[in-house]
């Protein structure tokens, strides 16, 4: 044979026959092994087979491996049709009432079978003897989930009528899955696309972690993540799939609704999204199940003796399939024959009408059931189901398969008639134009069937239950050593690690702590923990670590406590979230401490932080190596001077920038009390720094702890000989030391007395100020409340200077409550790779600039002469023409 030739048909048939006989005799698994052996042999003989991670464009599960369908198809179809109708009516009516209120019809329309088969047969709620399945529902499919909950009796007609009108009397329904808004219903926020699949992977892994550590019984529970095919373009969607395979997460199932469309148009008009995803997931080691064709196709495949059908179907691009979904049977026939003339006689087996109606696999409950069945029984790898559907399925002229379908929110009367007819909804002709919600009578067998199936599967889903009992806040004694201060220079990072160590030793809380690091433990001096509590690994440690003879060796263990995530802040944050909501998902409160480079936190994974607030996550985010001038040398991509600004918008995130070990101890202890004893739905962002200095003892007085938590307290007052004026200096984090130095300078060189306040949280101060303003706005008849900032700052009428290692916006954010105004110093700008002192000079936040800011403000108020300021500048070596750090 020459190089281009392939075996002729006769020869091929001999091979086919031989293979067929082997499969009949030995079974498909043995045949797979045989082919693999042949492939290896061929490689040894020098045969090069082009690599393909794809299988033909047919269903992965052949008809003879389909389990029998256990349900009543008639009831299920009726219920599903009613749910479809109500989901559509919900959106249509909301938009009639309130034009532009939005909502989506077409996503659920394409996914209805995927969800309904799950709800009727697979999704099992948490019970005493079952760990519970967790559902990550595609956000835009929310109307369908509400429509089901309505049939289940969990939602009222009034609530359905108030879809996207949450403030309507009696309460409405949130647009998408938001646990913050519907805390008894939704479990995971998913509508920022890409986050759901990423979180689902880490959630499945965290479930295993809990089991391996004995915090949750090994009693099952699958994580089901539903996502759109367009959503797979988000890097977060596919970014962690190799972890899922590596960890052998057979408790994880992705269901990708391949309706071939996204918002604007086709996902891959010129290609094949299903094949593309198959290759990606198979390459990563997942079990891939393609559900492409409905049962109606089975006889066609059977009669396809030439084996040409898969090839033809595989050569049709997605854009063309989309066109098929809006075209006539005759058109489809013509196009298929254009692709492969040999199909012509074969296609005579079906009529044009049959050809038009023939369904895609994702709309066939039998095929979907079969895929789910194989998925939950698959061992050793996660499963992805690629279900081919039509976007806007059933919407007919008003949007099925159309490019505009994603945005479709209205249906005219004709379209409603067509919908009713197609799905057989029992609504009268007179009513139809109103698009009324329909619920069968309570005693109707179809509704009873639906309820019985949920009861058998453990109860309704989704459902969120925060059942974990409160924990006891550790005794003050645990923190005493930090309140006393340290007699050798240490950093707040070191203090944090020591606090963590003590908490890990706590008899009640210790085991519940989940330290999470993205390959940064050594940076923060946490490597001592490797040996002490171990790094979690689902397979333990299968090698002798290179540092085995070292006291602090790299210990991996199946019950290891640390989640060493590698270099993925998004993945680590997803673990944080899984741990931070375990009080609700598993009824076991765990306390995550996610320690990361502060620069790669808020700005890198801000969307996940936002989701954390939505899902009512609890726990501690610890931003290490923080402070734009405190982290020296690293330059502008590492030195963080704005994460506290980025922490501002997340409403339940409590952000702190402590200066001393005792402040940190007070904040962490109170955080545990709030989140785990009082069960408040909030979480913490605390920055820690790596500058070593002496940690003073906590000043006396109850107001100190209180002030630390509220955001500021008086740390040190200093008089001065013959002082006529007094300044107020606010400092935070490591910059507090610069403030203290400035205090001394002002007293020594200018006889100015001053008070130094440590500001631990500009965010807390601002929230308090805003609450006071709002109260005063709404209560004009009461005497006005005074913000905490005002209460603190009105004690002195002198100038106020605030300095931190963060942007000036932070102190500016409280300026309106400073009775005498304030001057902000901060670290706006890109910065430099430099040493600390030079950076602080560059950004103008060192003691010299703090003193200068105070003197300059005093001169403007006439308290001192401008000459004295100029003189001081010379003394402090501050040049007036120094470049502005903001843009230099
Ligand atoms: C991060 C993010 N970007 C953009 C959007 C806006 N958006 C919502 S749905 C959608 C298209 C979804 O297409 P696909 O994932 O295929 O889902 P389908 O509705 O087709 O099932 C877009 C762009 C979003 N919700 N989240
Ligand atoms: Mg899509």
Set down the secondary structure blueprint.
Layout: H1 9-26, H2 28-44, H3 73-97, H4 106-121, E1 134-136, H5 142-151, H6 157-161, H7 195-212, E2 223-228, H8 235-238, H9 241-246, E3 252-258, H10 273-284, E4 287-291, H11 298-303, H12 309-315, H13 318-326, H14 329-339, H15 344-347, H16 352-357, H17 365-377, E5 383-388, H18 413-423, H19 445-456, H20 476-484, E6 486-490, H21 492-504, E7 513-517, H22 528-533, E8 535-536, E9 556-557, E10 563-564, H23 569-580, H24 582-585, E11 591-597, H25 602-614, E12 620-624, H26 643-646, E13 653-656, H27 661-677, E14 683-687, E15 693-695, H28 702-710, E16 712-718, E17 726-731, H29 735-750, E18 753-759, H30 762-778, H31 788-793, E19 800-803, H32 809-812, E20 823-825, H33 836-843, H34 847-860, H35 866-875
Parallel strand pairs: 1-2, 2-3, 3-5, 4-5, 7-10, 7-11, 8-9, 11-12, 12-14, 13-14, 17-18, 17-19, 19-20
Antiparallel strand pairs: 6-15, 16-18
């Amino acid at each position: 044979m020459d190089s281009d030739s392939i075996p002729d048909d006769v020869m091929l048939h001999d091979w086919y026959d031989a293979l067929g006989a082997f499969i009949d005799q030995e079974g498909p698994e043995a045949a797979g092994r045989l082919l693999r052996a042949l492939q290896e042999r061929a490689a040894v003989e020098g045969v090069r087979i082009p690599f393909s991670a794809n299988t033909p464009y047919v269903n992965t599960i052949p008809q003879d491996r389909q389990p029998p369908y256990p349900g009543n198809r008639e009831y299920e179809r009726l219920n599903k049709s009613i749910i479809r109708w109500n989901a559509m009516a919900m959106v249509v009516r909301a938009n009639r009432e309130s034009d532009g209120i939005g909502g989506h019809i077409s996503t659920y329309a394409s996914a209805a079978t995927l969800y309904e088969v799950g709800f009727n047969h697979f999704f099992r709620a948490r019970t005493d003897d079952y760990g519970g399945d967790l559902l990550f529902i595609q956000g835009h499919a929310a109307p369908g989930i509400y429509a089901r909950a309505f049939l289940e009796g969990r939602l009222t007609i009034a609530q359905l009528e108030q879809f996207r009108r949450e403030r309507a009397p009696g309460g409405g329904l949130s647009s998408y899955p938001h646990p913050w808004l519907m805390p008894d219903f939704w479990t995971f926020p998913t509508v920022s696309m890409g986050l759901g699949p990423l979180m689902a992977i880490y959630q499945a892994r965290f479930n295993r972690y809990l089991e391996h550590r004995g915090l949750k019984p090994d009693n099952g529970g699958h994580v089901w993540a539903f996502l759109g095919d367009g959503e797979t373009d988000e890097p977060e969607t596919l970014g962690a799939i190799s972890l899922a395979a590596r960890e052998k997460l057979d408790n994880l199932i992705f269901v990708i609704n391949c309706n071939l469309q996204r918002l604007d148009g086709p996902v891959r008009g010129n290609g094949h999204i299903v094949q593309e995803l198959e290759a990606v997931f198979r390459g990563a080691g997942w079990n891939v199940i393609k559900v492409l064709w409905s049962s109606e196709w089975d006889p066609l495949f059977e009669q396809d003796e030439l084996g040409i059908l898969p090839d033809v179907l595989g050569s049709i691009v997605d854009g063309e399939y989309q066109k098929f979904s809006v075209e006539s049977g005759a058109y489809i026939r013509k196009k298929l024959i254009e692709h492969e003339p040999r199909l012509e006689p074969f296609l005579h087996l079906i009529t044009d009408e049959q050809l038009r109606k023939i369904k895609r696999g994702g709309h066939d409950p039998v095929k979907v059931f079969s895929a789910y069945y194989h998925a939950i029984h698959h061992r050793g790898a996660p499963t992805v189901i690629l279900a081919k559907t039509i976007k806007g399925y059933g919407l007919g002229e008003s949007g099925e398969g159309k490019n505009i379908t994603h945005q479709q929110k209205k249906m005219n009367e004709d379209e409603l008639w067509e919908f009713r007819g197609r799905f057989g909804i029992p609504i009268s002709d007179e009513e139809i134009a109103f698009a009324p919600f329909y619920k069968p009578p309570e005693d109707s067998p179809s509704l009873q069937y639906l309820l019985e199936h949920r009861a058998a599967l453990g109860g309704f889903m989704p459902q969120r239950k925060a059942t974990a009992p409160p924990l006891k806040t550790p005794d003050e004694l645990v923190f005493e050593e930090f309140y006393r201060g340290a007699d050798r220079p240490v950093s707040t990072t070191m203090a944090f690690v020591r606090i963590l160590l003590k908490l890990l030793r706590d008899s009640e809380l210790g085991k519940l702590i989940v330290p999470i690091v993205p390959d940064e433990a050594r940076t923060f001096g946490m490597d001592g923990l490797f040996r002490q509590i171990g790094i979690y690994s689902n397979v333990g440690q299968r090698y002798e670590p290179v540092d085995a003879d070292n006291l602090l060796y790299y210990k991996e263990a199946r019950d290891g406590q640390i989640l060493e995530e590698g270099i993925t802040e998004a993945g680590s944050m997803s673990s944080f979230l899984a741990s931070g909501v375990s009080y609700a998902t598993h009824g076991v409160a765990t306390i995550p401490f996610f320690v990361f480079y502060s620069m790669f936190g808020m700005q890198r994974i801000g969307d996940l932080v936002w989701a954390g607030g939505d899902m009512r996550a609890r726990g501690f985010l610890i931003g290490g190596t923080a402070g734009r001038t405190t982290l020296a040398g690293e330059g502008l991509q590492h030195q963080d001077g704005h994460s506290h600004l980025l922490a501002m918008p997340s409403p339940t995130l409590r952000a702190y920038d402590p200066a001393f070990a005792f402040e940190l101890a007070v904040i962490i202890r109170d955080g545990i009390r709030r989140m785990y004893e009082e069960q408040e739905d909030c979480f913490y962002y605390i920055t820690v720094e790596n500058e070593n200095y002496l940690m003073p003892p906590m000043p006396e007085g109850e107001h100190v702890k209180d002030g630390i938590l509220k955001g500021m307290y008086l740390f040190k007052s200093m008089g001065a000989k013959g002082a006529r004026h007094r300044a107020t200096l606010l400092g935070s984090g490591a910059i507090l030391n610069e403030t203290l130095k400035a205090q001394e300078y002002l007293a020594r060189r200018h006889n100015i007395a001053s008070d130094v306040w440590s500001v631990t949280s500009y965010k807390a101060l601002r929230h308090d100020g805003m609450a006071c303003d709002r109260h005063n706005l709404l209560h004009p008849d009461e005497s006005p409340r005074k913000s905490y900032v005002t209460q603190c700052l009105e004690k002195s009428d002198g100038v106020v200077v605030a300095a931190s290692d963060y942007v000036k916006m932070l102190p500016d954010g409280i300026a309106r409550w400073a009775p005498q105004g304030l001057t902000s110093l901060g670290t706006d700008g890109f910065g430099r790779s430099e040493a600390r002192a030079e950076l602080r000079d560059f950004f103008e936040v060192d003691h010299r600039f703090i003193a200068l800011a105070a003197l300059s403000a005093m001169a403007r108020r006439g308290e001192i002469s401008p000459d004295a300021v100029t003189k001081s500048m010379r003394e402090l070596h501050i040049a007036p023409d120094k470049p502005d750090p903001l843009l230099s």
